[in-house]
Design goal:
Helix content is 43%, strand content 24%. By secondary structure, the protein is α/β, with parallel strands linked by helices. The chain has one domain (2-144): Response regulator (Rossmann fold, 3-Layer(aba) Sandwich). Helix 3 (82-92) links the parallel strand 4 (67-74) and strand 5 (97-104). Helix 2 (49-63) runs parallel beside helix 3. The longest helix is centred in the C-terminal third of the chain and has 17 residues, at 128-144.
Length: 146
């Protein structure tokens, strides 16, 4: 979060950047949380697409136009898959959603979504440092927009 210095007795948030990870598998969420923690990156997590959208609505209510979002989601989840989640998030939070990534083992199903919705498709076998490189790029790009 970027906050302006104290002016006239109050501070003003000028940018709030969040990475949201969504996966229905608790073990995957724990592994991703550990990777982010070891790299010093704050992370919020949801176990479903619906829960993720609720969290995004809450963030939007709290931060509005200064909110910058990156979604890292599982591709195949019950109820709402990663493709549907990103499509819905882009509709509802088009100005705030700056990057999206789908982690999946079955890439063939999602290639249409990559073009249609505009997200990065990453195989779940991605190495930790490659995943973090993508996240650090988002964070650096987001910070330069402030």
């Amino acid at each position: 979060m970027v906050v302006l210095p104290l002016v006239g007795g109050e501070r003003r948030v000028i940018m709030s950047t969040w990475v949201l990870h969504v996966d229905d598998d608790e073990m995957v969420r724990l592994m991703i949380a550990r990777i982010f923690h070891l790299n010093g990156i704050p992370l919020i997590q949801a176990s479903s697409g619906r829960e993720a959208l609720e969290m995004l609505h809450e963030l939007d209510r709290s931060y509005g136009s200064v909110l910058r979002l990156m979604i890292v989601t599982d591709g195949q989840m019950p109820g709402m898959n990663g493709d549907d989640l990103i499509a819905e998030a882009r509709k509802l939070f088009s100005h705030q959603l700056k990057a999206a990534m789908v982690l999946t083992g079955g890439t063939e199903r999602f290639h249409g979504g990559v073009v249609r919705i505009g997200y990065e498709l990453v195989e779940k076998s991605v190495k930790n440092f490659e995943l973090m490189e993508k996240v650090f790029h988002f964070l650096a790009t987001s910070a330069s927009e402030s």
